[in-house]
Design a protein that fits this description.
elongated, seven-stranded parallel sheet, 345 residues, Rossmann fold, four-stranded parallel sheet, 2 domains
Length: 345
């Protein structure tokens, strides 16, 4: 299994020490390995000439590097070595990573051999398969049991009616998926549970699988400023999961405190280092006066964003949703689950 951007080794070639340190620490926080820091063109050229190894390498450089020669640098271009100039890029985490990832996506997805004889139909099929992006749906939300695991399991079970689905229990503080599956009235045979706590190298787990849909119950997120700068393996796992995610679902419970935390999350969301489709869900909404007021506030907070409101119903914890049309209260919850499933797929 591979993420959209595979593991990289990075060479920096930046004369400004402060800028180089900023770039290196930013990339290190994303789990990328800095293997060489060039201080002039001759040192960079010598290292590239001696460079061997299977991992893809990216040279992040500025043209004010002492003795810089663009033609000499271009001689080292290959299917496994990419050059990225950051001359005119602002020293800002989001802007830098957006630029770097934008330069890396296509060249590093496909090996050069896959471009040979592209006119042949069989190779076109291979190329299309190589470009197919895994579907990774990550569920997170506020603390205080907003129903992340229940919603994740119902969405996964709904999607499993037509596809193979892996659901990952990645909530290290309060794992619940195994318990909920044990209580379920019905679950699809296409649904497989993966508990990351049972895997020997949690820090190296790779989520994406092109043959299956992946649903990840990530648990509550810590403050995003901490996530993008923390170097511990838990933060690294969250970073990699967010990098691999194709749709993020954020849940909050129908109460005032959860809505305050939702507002805080939305204000922090630009800290994430790439654009990410996100769906907001207000869970366990009730038809009382207070419940309607909370739903209205949720709608205003999420104005312009994709959002859903799930009604409160106890069956959601024991009756896993399957595609169906029902007029009952539980049927309304199923209908909303189905609409969410269609959006994320």
């Amino acid at each position: 299994m591979q993420s959209e951007i595979p593991q990289l080794q990075v060479i920096t070639a930046i004369s400004d020490a402060d800028c180089e340190d900023f770039v290196s620490q930013l990339l290190f926080s994303q789990g990328w390995s800095i293997i060489f820091r060039a201080i002039d063109m001759s040192g960079l050229a010598k290292f590239l000439e001696e460079r061997t190894g299977a991992l893809r390498t990216v040279v992040i450089y500025k043209s004010d590097l002492p003795e810089f020669e663009q033609e000499l640098l271009n001689k080292f271009l290959s299917p496994k070595i990419t050059h990225i100039c950051i001359d005119n890029i602002e020293t800002n985490s989001h802007i830098l990573m957006t630029h770097i990832r934008g330069q890396l996506r296509l060249p590093l997805i496909i090996e050069s051999t896959k471009f040979e004889d592209r006119s042949k139909p069989n190779n076109l099929t291979t190329l299309a398969s190589a470009l197919k992006q895994p579907c990774v749906i990550t569920i997170t939300g506020t603390v205080g049991a907003p129903g992340r695991s229940s919603v994740a399991l119902n969405i996964a079970n709904y999607l499993a009616e037509g596809s193979e689905v892996n659901i990952y229990d990645a909530d290290s503080r309060a794992p619940a998926l195994d318990y909920l599956l044990g209580r379920a009235v019905k679950s699809s045979e296409n649904l497989s549970l993966v508990d990351i706590s049972t895997l020997s190298k949690s820090a190296e787990i790779s989520i994406p699988d092109r043959s299956r849909i992946s649903v990840v119950d990530l648990g509550p997120l810590p403050p995003l400023e901490e996530v993008v700068n923390d170097r511990r393996w838990q933060a690294g796992f969250i970073n990699r999961t967010l990098e691999e995610t194709t749709t993020l679902i954020y849940l909050c419970k129908s109460n005032g405190l959860s809505l305050i935390r939702l507002e805080q999350f939305i204000s922090q969301f630009p800290v994430l280092l790439r654009k990410l489709p996100i769906i907001y869900i207000l869970n366990q909404s009730r038809s009382t006066r207070e419940g309607r007021a909370l739903a209205n506030r949720f709608t205003k907070i999420c104005d312009g964003e994709t959002s859903f409101i799930l009604p409160a119903h106890e069956q959601i914890n024991t009756n896993l949703a399957i595609p169906a049309k029902r007029e009952t209260a539980f049927g309304k919850a199923i209908a909303e689950i189905g609409r969410i499933a269609q959006v994320v797929k």
